[in-house]
Design brief:
By secondary structure, the chain is of the alpha/beta class. The protein has one domain: Alpha-Beta Barrel (TIM Barrel), CATH 3.20.20. Helix content is about 40%, strand content about 10%. The strands form two sheets. An eight-stranded parallel sheet has the order 1-2-3-4-7-8-9-10. It has a two-stranded antiparallel ribbon with strand order 5-6. Helix 7 links the parallel strand 3 and strand 4. The longest helix has 19 residues. The N terminus is likely disordered.
């Protein structure tokens, strides 16, 4: 993931980047500094409640890709492991506060951010994963109560612990009223079509749950490109792998009530779409796709974070219905203003931009309409 350059003035593109809010010493840097300096807390150990419930003026964006990092979560998982030294990692690991999110949301016209925890790959297999997931989901729910209409949440699950995840799905959805669940694209060498996840999918399908996914560098590719962070290549390809896994395992058609949101415009899937459709037409796969593999791909949802530019958007919108493209920022790595400007430059009509900013997500999450 590229990151907002407030944390590192040495980024090679900083001098030419067209968005002042992301330049070193610009508005974003000031927000980070102000957030670190503020000591206000709520019941969740967060910032003070919003002064008003009024929705911000402007695009009224609903951000479905917005990270948060409670201090307890960071302490439990070990900041030394979460902080990878890349620009922006410090902001995500050490410095995040609710005020930081709210400031960026207000500056970029975001009405609501549906939160997903930072670096959930480090939670997988942790001996206290169930407790950490529970506390993190309770924190997110409290943020939503403290700031009505501003924060939603995708509940993190203690995967690959299936039994623990089933219990957390029940608690997060029934008690905390989470807006969906959050799953990484892979766990070890298990992608999201893995047969071991069958009980999870059966429950999610029964409940008609929205599943937000986020990529990482999978174990199988660790260290294969020295000097190049996994976010540059592996994140996009892991999203693509897990889309293939969900499709060709048969899960996409087996669990029609499970709706997926895939990050970063679907990774590299749009560019290799023909390979998916050709494999889907082979005899041993064809029966899994009564309507054809492309119709299942078009049933998924894709958000624009880190892909809000003409090169990626021209490919995605060439085959995806606009109604299935959602706004996302990847905050704190990128800003709402940054992604919004990229969206405008990507060739969409004003009506399409309004749908991506707000209308499409409002249909999925009417509580934030």
């Amino acid at each position: 993931m590229q990151v907002i350059s407030a944390v590192s003035p040495s980024l090679p593109w900083a001098g030419a980047w067209p968005c002042n809010c992301c330049l070193p010493g610009g508005r974003t840097a000031a927000l980070f500094a102000a957030s670190r300096a503020s000591g206000s807390k709520s019941k969740s150990g967060a910032a003070k409640k919003s002064k008003a419930k009024a929705k911000p003026q402007g695009p009224r964006r609903i951000d479905v890709h917005h990270h948060f990092a409670p201090r307890k979560y960071v302490a439990d998982l070990g900041a030394e492991h979460l902080f990878n030294g890349s620009p922006g990692s410090r902001a995500a690991t050490y410095d995040w506060t609710p005020s930081m999110s709210l400031d960026d949301m207000d500056a970029g016209g975001t009405q609501t951010a549906i939160l997903s925890v930072y670096s959930a790959s480090h939670l997988a297999g942790h001996r206290h994963a169930r407790r950490i997931a529970r506390e993190t989901n309770e924190y997110a729910a409290q943020l939503g109560r403290d700031h009505p209409g501003r924060f939603g949440s995708f509940a993190v699950l203690p995967l690959p612990d299936v039994d623990g995840s089933l219990k957390e799905i029940e608690y997060a959805l029934d008690v905390l009223k989470a807006d969906g669940v959050f799953m990484m694209t892979s766990y070890g060498n298990q992608w999201l079509g893995d047969a071991a996840l069958k009980p999870i999918y059966e429950e999610l399908n029964r409940r008609k749950v929205m599943v937000y996914t986020h990529p990482h560098g999978p174990a199988a590719t660790e260290g294969i490109m020295p000097g190049i962070p996994p976010s540059v290549i592996e994140f996009a390809t892991d999203t693509t792998r897990t889309i293939a896994s969900v499709l060709f395992s048969g899960n996409a058609t087996r669990y029609p009530n499970v709706n997926f949101i895939f990050s970063h415009a679907g990774g590299v899937m749009p560019f290799i779409l023909e390979r998916f459709t050709r494999v889907g037409a082979l005899p041993h796969h064809k029966a899994k796709f009564p309507r054809g593999v492309l119709q299942e791909i078009k049933r998924f949802y894709y958000e624009i974070a880190q892909a809000s530019h003409p090169y990626a958007m021209s490919s995605l919108k060439s085959f995806m219905p606009i109604s299935h493209i959602l706004f996302g920022t990847d905050f704190p790595y990128r800003s709402a203003a940054d992604m919004g400007k990229g969206l405008v430059r990507s060739g969409f009509t004003p009506r399409e931009i309004a749908a991506i900013n707000h209308g499409n997500a409002a249909k999925l999450f009417p509580q934030f309409a």
